[in-house]
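Allow me, if you will, to draw on your knowledge of protein folds for a short while. I am sending you one protein, given as its amino acid sequence and as whole-number tokens for its backbone shapes. Kindly check, if you would, that the fold set down in the tokens agrees with what the sequence suggests. The record follows directly beneath this note:
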Amino acid sequence: MPRSVLPTFLVYCFITSITPGPANLCSLSAGLRYGRQVALRQWYGLASGFLIDALAAVVLCRALGGVLGGYVGYLSWVGAAYILWMAWRLLRSAGTPPAEDARRPTYYTGLLLNLTNVKVILFCVTALSSFVLPWSRSFLRLLAVGLALTVIGPCCNLVWLFAGARLQAVFSRFQKTIDVLMAAALALCAVSLVLPR
């Protein structure tokens, strides 16, 4: 990628990573509901899932190049279904005090979330196919950018997690309302994945 494209790439990465999406909303919810310690367990899974997605995108972009774009639409439906399931789960637990909620965030819930997170998959594929492939098909360059994405995405995700942990006192007063709003936001994410653009 030419240096002249680097600022655009970084802006794209930051905006895509910091805006609400399934992982960011789940991190915010986990931070609000359980605090930083428990939410970080889930974040480790999110970061691992992000790394796997980024590495898979590197391999697929290298192997398939422009052909990959046609298959991303099918992944949107799988991701949307999983996000709707998460929204339903959040609605079911709306208003349940964290100590009584048996569905605490874990490493594996974070890993599964990002392995099926179409936003992350599209983010990685778009970044690689738009900012690297037009100038180079080098596996090492694709890998370097893929690893950079793995730093940028989870770091932005931490912002949401820590915001949730800091707002935990507010959450305890408005728990049910916040749970319902989070579930609605997740459902909106799911619908936006499959609506025609």
